[in-house]
Every structure is written in C-alpha cells, then in structure tokens.
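User: My collaborator sent over this chain with a note saying "see what the structure looks like." That's all I know about it. Can you take a look?
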Amino acid sequence: PEACPYSPGDFDIHPLRRSEAIEVAQCMYDEFGYTYPHEIVYHPDGFFNAVERGECVSYVATAPDGEVAGHVALVASPSLHGTMELCMGVVRRKYRKCSIMSGLTAAAMERASHMGLRSVNAMPVAYHPFTQKVCNKQGMHPFGFSFNRLNGDLSTSYEQGSRGSLALSAILLSDPHRDIYIRPAVLDIVGYVVDDGDLDRDIYVAGCPVPLEGDSAVTAETDARMGFGRIVVRRTGEDVRPSLRAMDRGLCEQRCEIIEMLIAANEESSVAAYDEAVSLGYFCTGIFCGCDDTAAHGEARVLVGGLRMPRDRGTVHRAPGARGGGDPR
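Assistant: Without extra context I'll predict from the sequence alone. Here is the result:
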C-alpha cells in the first residue's frame, strides 16, 4: 500500500456508532470476504445491537474526513465465561502503516480493564506473524493451539488460501489461586503454560481410578456456516462415558468437524472426562485458565482434539488417596 498521508494522531478512536456499523461490515468484507468466523459483524444492525447489549465491545478509528479506517472488537464466549476475545481487527489498506491497530487495541484493552473480566484472549492465525505480534504487544501468553479451527476457504488480502489453525493466547486481568486436576501425560503442557504465564495454581496429578458421583453436565455447540462443533464438559459425573460418546456421535452425524472439547478441570473427577476423550481419539493441545471462577462450571479448561487442558502454577501434588502413578495417558 501507498504511504498513509496521516499521522496516528489524526485518527479519532472511539466506540462504534450505529451509523458506522455498515462501514465496519464493508471493511471486514473487503479484507476477508464473507468468511470471517464472527458472522455477526456482517450484519450492521445486529452487530450494533449486540454492542448495546454488552455482548461485544467495538472500537473504530476514523480518518479526518470521517471514513472508517479500522476496527477492533471484544466478543464474549458462550463457553468461557469471564473472558472476551480480541478479534475483528482490520485496517483499510490505504491507512496501513499509520499505527491504527495499536491505538485500537490499546483502547479495547483499556475498556476491558474496567469490565470485571478475568482475562482477554485472542486467537492469532498460525501462519500469519502480524496477529501474533499484536498479541505479544498486549502482553499475552500462549495457552494452547486449535487445529482446523477455520473453514478451509478463509483467505485474506495478505495471502490467499487456507488458514485453518489458530493459537490461543490471553492476558489475565485477575488471577485468584485455583487448584487444577490433570493426568500425568499433560503435565509438561500444563506446566509450560502455567510457568510462562506465572499463574497462581496448584496442580494435582490424579491417580486412577477417580471417584465419580451424580450426573455429568455435557453440552455441544455448533456453527453451521463454519461447519464445526465444540463439546463442553462443565461437570464430570458417573455417566460421563455414555454422555461424551453420545455427544460426539451426534455431532459427527451432523457432519460437524469437532474442533475442540473443553473440560472443566477444577475437580478430581474431571480426569475421567479426559480419559474418555482420549479413548475417542482426542488429544491435549493446551489449557485455558482465564475463565470466571464464580461461574458454576469453574475456571479451568482442558483443551482436547483440539483438547484443551488448563493448568496452573504452583506446587505439583498427588491427589489425596491416589493409587500408583495414574493413567499414563
């Protein structure tokens, strides 16, 4: 692109106005076509209404003539309470090299710091270093990896072609002490994440078997346009085996690619859900420790197949009553 005729101070960065939502949609379409994962951004009225409801936070940068030059948003997750994703970042080609994205992300992060969030997360594209640099600049740390997250035809003006896999990064805005239960096989992954982020956690390496009581709380989420599904295990009970298998089978019958399973790992029983996930062919790709610990499903999340597994910093223990070294998986 040609050199931008403006300096960073010439742009006005402010919360989205209703009249600007259609320009934001056009910016996203010009850059991504109709393939961006958060489809709501393509619907100006719906997007602005979501902003008004607090489901999204949106900032735009406008040029001196009032044209929308760039945009970034924070979007809440239905699965991970207490965190919002930094996303929908775009700058019009003619305004690049004006440090617009730096100003937009700074404004969004400042807003996030006053919202009572546990964390802000982002999912930088695996092959594209620019989005990774944005995360680094905000002080985010790696938490995991999500394979085949995006549909295969998603492309950008930077490079045509597939960008199917994403990393998971986050910055914790608050970090109360929590206990995490895991199997020995994921200790290295969990340990790296916790140590790198200097998180306040105690890790309990659970033995085998673990006690199970009551019913499991297992749900599924699907995205028909993207063609993927996610399984969320909020509680692991006596019926975890049939519950997980039925959910997995149901999503496969809908022809959904199951991009990940999220397992709450704040109780010893959660390792039984991990064991069942492994038996179904899932594998651990990381952990996420930035959820709201006041939510009923707890704070820790294991990522599987994508499996995501959360762990935290601190002392490594053997769970009370554990027998032997635990399941080697």
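A starting point for your reply to your collaborator: Helices lie at 21-32, 44-53, 100-112, 129-137, 187-197, 240-253, 270-279.
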